[in-house]
Write a structure and sequence with these properties.
140 residues, Nucleoside Triphosphate Pyrophosphohydrolase, seven-stranded mixed beta sheet, 2 helices, globular
């Protein structure tokens, strides 16, 4: 009999909002820097998951089909989970001042949104996968 594989794969969808030469990210007091989005539920289509996550977290209704930025895959040193990140981008005609609405994840007051210019991305010390996604979204 085969042994049961206890390794997990976590599939997430992320949105990189762009406005002119800037992209959006959020930060927490604990130092987390990420993009809106979240986990794909079993059987859920990727864009449907993105729409659901954006509505849950930001009360943002995604109408247009976003462009695929890239797919990143990584496993942390503890090999606890294999992450697969599917990132999309959409161009906004003007900046939106987002607020966090998903109180299950964190109190809204703990999340701060930031628009960042391409030339300032490297100075923010993002995880390498996140930095690569931001830079690629800026080029699209």
């Amino acid at each position: 009999m085969d042994s049961i594989d206890t390794h997990q794969i976590r599939v997430t969808v992320k949105m990189l909002f762009r406005c002119k030469d800037e992209v959006l990210f959020y930060s927490t007091p604990e130092g987390v820097r990420d993009f809106p989005g979240g986990g794909v539920e079993f059987g859920e289509q990727l864009v449907d998951a993105l729409k659901r996550e954006l509505m849950e977290e930001l009360h943002y209704k995604l109408v247009d089909i976003p462009k695929l930025v890239d797919v990143k895959s990584f496993t942390p040193e503890d090999r606890s989970v294999h992450h697969l990140i599917i990132a999309y981008t959409i161009e906004l005609p003007e900046k939106i001042e987002f607020t966090w609405h998903d109180t299950d994840a964190s109190p809204p007051s703990d999340i701060a949104f930031h628009w960042i210019n391409k030339r300032d991305i490297a100075s923010q010390h993002f995880y390498p996968n996140h930095e690569a996604l931001l830079l690629k979204a800026c080029e699209m």
